Amino acid sequence: MADRPRTPTSAASTATVAEALGGAVPALAAAGCETPRLDAELLVADALGLDRAALVADPGRDLPRGTSRLISERVRRRRVREPVAYILGRKGFRRIELAVDPRVLIPRPETELLVEVALSLPHGARVHDVGTGSGALALALRDERPDLVVSASDVSTSAVEVAQANGAGQGVRFTVADGLPPGAYGLVVANLPYVREDEWDGLQEEIRLYEPREALVSGAEGLDAITALAREAMTGTWLALEHAPAQAAVVRSLLTDATTHRDLAGRQRVTMGCAP
Ligand SMILES: C[S@@+](CC[C@H](N)C(=O)[O-])C[C@H]1O[C@@H](n2cnc3c(N)ncnc32)[C@H](O)[C@@H]1O
């Protein structure tokens, strides 16, 4: 079969998309990346200003020389296990895209469940996001329910800087605070740290080497931050808390009228209930 024709983009071409992927995918696989092809496609597509579908549809496309260098540098970073989201500087969450860097946790797909449980709130309800990080929960809620009065806080000043930049002009108030700032809220949502101290050394290098430890680890049982929030919230305040599946029963015991929701993988991930 004849080779697929190249799609010229520049006179100074050195390689095609297919050749760039052909070099990057085995290199990322050898470095231990779990999804080498997906990662390589994301890095190459972004360097070309394309989406993945356009990239895959045109493997014969030429890479301008500068793009080859940019791709090489990105592959080098990924080979030392830097997460794709930090390399690209952004991560999608629900319908929005957030700027992310090592000051904040990369928002996870399972956290989208917290947004879902909050969508049934009555019109105009007041919601607070504790431990907002990049602002993911607060900004996704504001995007999907513009009627809600949304505020958010984080104990990390640098995280709040990231959230404020992500939320510019969105009408969400971000503050620095340890725990829940005083106030009356229709619902408090929180994806606080819930990893056990002894789990840290076993986490993937992408997490251990690049994400902020204080955003993930919370005491011997991973429950310090969640327990403190359940105790400090005003009696009767509704809380929706993300946690590890194995923590579901303990989290329910911290609340009254508690129910646990499962994530897309069927694991007990979010518990909703009232502060006692
Ligand atoms: C797991 S990250 C979640 C970030 C974001 N909510 C998300 O889902 O992507 C936990 C966040 O909680 C913050 N945090 C930890 N302890 C806290 C506390 N006592 N009060 C407020 N924020 C806290 C961390 O700084 C971090 O940004």
- Work out the helicity level: 25-40%
Major sheet summary line: 7 strands, mixed
Taken in chain order, the helices and strands follow as: EHHHEHHEEHEHEHEEHHEHEE
Low-confidence stretches: 1-5, 7-13
Q: How is this structure best described in words?
A:
With about 280 residues, the chain is an alpha/beta fold. The chain has two domains: about 70 residues, Helicase, Ruva Protein, domain 3 (Orthogonal Bundle); about 170 residues, 3-Layer(aba) Sandwich (Rossmann fold), CATH 3.40.50. It is about 35% helix and about 20% strand. The radius of gyration is 21 Å and the shape is elongated. The termini are far apart. The structure holds S-adenosylmethionine.
